[in-house]
Specification:
Blueprint lengths: L9 H17 L4 H8 L5 H11 L13 H7 L1 H12 L14 H31 L4 H40 L3
């Protein structure tokens, strides 16, 4: 028997908390089951739980995995915050976002600069091919595609940097008592 969410009552949070414990601790509930059972919620705390479940980094298997240390340092604190708030039922609130570190902002900025430099190099080469009417069609296409790709990535990284800076300054203001 499948139980659907009836938005907003403390039982929904208790049910979501029970499912989350089964997912994170017992590992006997799948991501698909979590999304199917909780996906129609309008509760921001349960929605945050679902985001964390869907974005959980792989720790085993093939491909990109994270170490246990990285998992516990960079992912688990967010899960723990949500589980604590879910346990409170109706009194639980969506946890405040964590303040991005200055190191994250600096390294993101370095990544942004590298991507901009790569995009400018490829797009400059493309323009040079057009002006001198040299280079094969493949070389022109490749330069244009790589330049465009790196430019789009640079814009996305810039948006993330601006978001980190905004979040960092907002949380600094909240810590001082400013509103």
């Amino acid at each position: 028997v499948r139980r659907r969410m009836a938005d907003g009552s403390p039982n929904d949070r208790a049910y979501a908390h029970a499912l989350a414990r089964r997912y994170f601790y017992d590992r006997n509930v799948t991501v698909e089951a979590m999304v199917e059972m909780l996906g129609e919620t309008s509760d921001p705390l349960i929605a945050r739980l679902l985001e964390l479940v869907v974005q959980e980094p792989a720790r085993t298997g093939r491909g990109l995995t994270v170490s246990q240390r990285d998992y516990e340092k960079n992912y688990w604190p967010y899960v723990a915050d949500v589980l604590i708030e879910l346990e409170k039922g109706d009194l639980g609130e969506s946890p405040a976002p964590r303040r991005p570190s200055l190191r994250r902002i600096v390294w993101s900025s370095v990544l942004f600069l590298v991507m901009v430099a790569g995009a400018l190099e490829h797009l400059g080469r493309f323009v040079q091919y057009l002006r001198n009417e040299e280079g094969s069609m493949f070389a022109r296409s490749f330069s244009l595609a790589m330049g465009t790709f790196l430019a789009v990535l640079a814009v996305l990284v810039l948006r993330a940097i601006l978001h980190f800076i905004r979040l960092r300054t907002q949380l600094r203001g909240d810590l001082r008592g400013d509103v």
